[in-house]
Amino acid sequence: MRLTGRPDKGGTKRWHWPDIPLREYATSLKRNGQIDDGVFALVDDRRHPRTIPARETVPPFLNFAPLENGFAALERTARAYDDALAHASENGGDWLARASLREVNARLIAVERAMTLHEGLPNRDWFKHQIYAPGFYTGYGVKTLPAVRESIEQKDWKLAEEEIVRVGKVLENTGEAIEGATAELVRAAR
Fold first, then answer.
1. Rounded Cα–Cα distance for residues 148 and 144 (Å)
2. pLDDT confidence of 7, banded at 50, 70, 90?
3. What phi and psi, each to the nearest 5 degrees, are found at residue 73?
4. Could you tell me the CA-to-CA distances from 88 to 36, 69, 83, 95, 110 in Å, in that order?
5. Rounded distance, CA 84 to CA 50, Å?
6. Could you report the per-residue pLDDT of 8-52, keeping only the tens digit for each?
7. What are the distances in angstroms from CA 159 to CA 14, 67, 149?
8. 64: nearest Cα among 145, 173, 177
9. CB of 35 within 8 A of CB of 55?
10. What residue ranges do the domains of the chain occupy?
11. Domain 62-188, CATH 1.20.930.40 — does that match?
12. In Å, how far are 58, 74, 116, 119, 155 from 15, measured between CA atoms?
């Protein structure tokens, strides 16, 4: 089982984190400027009056460093695992055929389990997986890194900051679990 896929022919596909808050920031500034300039009052029709929207809170700049560090650790360790697997598969995979892979498989199971937290997701403590989950607000559509993504989409900036740190740690823990699987694969291939 390889751990690094390259579905987009060269780079890993992933959600570019800063885009959403920056888009929210720009939209809020534009809307608040329109309110301040009286644009909504100017286009109002007395025969069909509309409520002028309230000023929006401009979102803070979020620190995505914990997520980026987690992604970097995950990519580095997955690459090392793939290299070890390629080495073990040389000569028709004789090393893998001779070796006991029980420990390697146990370590690979631990990789998936490292992607969960006992506390679960915000508003869904029964859903433990931190990498993907059905959307809380959208139903069955899968959300990537749902704790972070949904808190940003709901403009809950304090929760977003907390979840960025938590999910970054989950990614680092997953990288450590991959390191364990890599070490076990190297040991089994000797």
1. 9
2. very low
3. -65, -40
4. 66, 29, 9, 6, 20
5. 65
6. 444 444 445 566 677 778 888 898 898 899 888 887 778 888 888
7. 21, 15, 10
8. 145
9. yes
10. 17-61, 62-188
11. yes
12. 22, 15, 20, 24, 18
Name, in order, each residue with C-beta under 8 angstroms of 108's C-beta and a sequence gap of 6 or more: 1, 181
Q: Is the pTM of this model over 0.90?
A: no
Tokens of 82: 């793939």
Q: Give me 119's structure tokens.
A: 């506390």
Residue 112 CA to residue 74 CA, distance in Å, equals 12
Between CA 130 and CA 145 the distance in angstroms is: 6
| CA distance linking residue 40 with residue 53, whole number of Å | 8
Cα separations in angstroms, 180 against 99, 106, 115, 167, 177: 17, 10, 15, 20, 5
Measure CA 185 to chain center. 27
